[in-house]
Amino acid sequence: MKTRILLIASLFISVFGISNQASAQKSKTKTPKRVVFLIGDGMGLAQISGAMSGYQGQNAFERFTYIGLSKTKSADNYITDSGAGATVFSIGKKAKNGAIGVDSAGKASEGLFEKLKKANWGTGVVATSSITHATPASFYAHVPSRKMEEQIATFLLKGNCDLAIGGGQKFFDKRTLDARNVFEELKLLGFTIKTDSVFEPIEARKLVYTLAQNGMKTMEEGRGDFLLQATKLAQTNLLKYYGNYFLMVEGSQIDWGGHDNNYEYMKAELLDFNSVLNQVLDAAIKDGETLVIVTADHETGGLSLLENKENPSTFTPNYSSKGHSGIMVPVFAFGPGAENFTGIYENTEIFAKLIKLLNLNGND
Ligand code: MG
Ligand code: ZN
Fold first, then answer.
1. Cα of 227 to ligand 1 centre, how many Å?
2. In this predicted model, what pLDDT tens digit does every residue of 330-342 receive, in sequence order?
3. What's the distance, Cα to Cα, between the start and end of the chain in Å?
4. What is the CA(185)–ligand 2 centre distance, in A?
5. Tally of domains in the chain
6. Which of 27, 200, 244, 331 has the greatest count of CB atoms below 10 A from its CB?
7. Which ligand is nearest to the CA of 87?
8. CATH code at 87?
9. How confident is the model at residue 4 (pLDDT cuts 50, 70, 90)?
10. How far is CA 145 from CA 107, 215, 363, in A?
C-alpha cells in the first residue's frame, strides 16, 4: 500500500514536473520585445555560399537556429523588384514591381511601423543606400513608385519611423520638386537631424542621420564599419527611449554588386553584412528577448558557383543576368518566436508571422 502511494505521488510529481517544464518552455517563447529584421538586398544562397566560402572569421549564418525559404514573386511579375519585395514585408500583401507601401490596386495599406507605433514600439531603418531608397522606404512610406524619393522623404514627417540612418541627404534639402527643407520640418517635430560624412554616435529619441547625398560609399571605396556602428547606435537609442523596438537593417549594396556582375563588390558587401549579423546575434543572446530575422527581397544576378578547372578546391562565380532572379531566398531566424519561420512559404507569410507573434492587427 505504502509503495502504491509512493508510486502515485512520484507519478504526480513527475507529471507536475513535466507540465511545469512545459510552461517554462512556453514562457521562453513569449512575444519578443525587440525585433531586428535584416535584409540582404539581392542575397541568395549563391551569394552567401560564395562569400562565406573560405572566410576565416565567424560565419553568422551558421549561428541561426531556424531556417526557412521564401518565395519572392510580386503581384505582377515572377521576378520581383526591391519595392514590391520590401513592401510585402511591411504591408503583408503582394505589390506591383516598383510600388512602395501600396497594394496591387495602388492603395496605401497600413504598414508594420504604423501598427507598431500604435503599440508604442520604437521603429527604425538603417541602410547603405539612401534612406528613401525602395527597401527602407517601404517600411514608412506609401507611394506608387520607388522613383519618388523626394515624396518618400516627406513621409518621415508622419512620425511612424523614429530613426533613419543612411544616405539620401539631397532628397530632404536639395529638392527639385519644391523648395521645402524637410530637415527643418522634421526638427519642428522634435527630430534631431545630423548630416556628416563621417559617422559618430549621437543620442536622440527621434533621429534622421544622413551621411551621403545619395547612396553610401561601397566597402571597396572605404565605407568601413558604418553599417556595424549605425546598427549598434540604432539599437542603443531605440532600447533607451522605447524599450520595445523594431529595427530594419539593410545591406543594400549586395544587390548593387549583383547588378554590376561584380563578384568582389558583392562579396565585400556581404562580408560587411555578416559582421553586422554577428554583432546583432551577440546582443540578442545577451538580451534574450530579441528576435533576429535575416532574409532577402530576391536574388540578384542569377549567380551560380561553377567548377574551377584550374583550381578545383574553389569555384568560378558566374552571373547569368544583370537583373534579379526568381529563385527562393533563405530566411534565418533566432530568438523568441524564431521557430515560426521554418518551412517554405510565400514572402507574404513573413508579415503574417510577425503580426501574429507581436499581437498586432493584420491587414484584411
Ligand atoms: Mg534595397
Ligand atoms: Zn536590384
1. 14
2. 999 999 999 999 9
3. 61
4. 31
5. 1
6. 331
7. 1
8. 3.40.720.10
9. low
10. 12, 18, 21
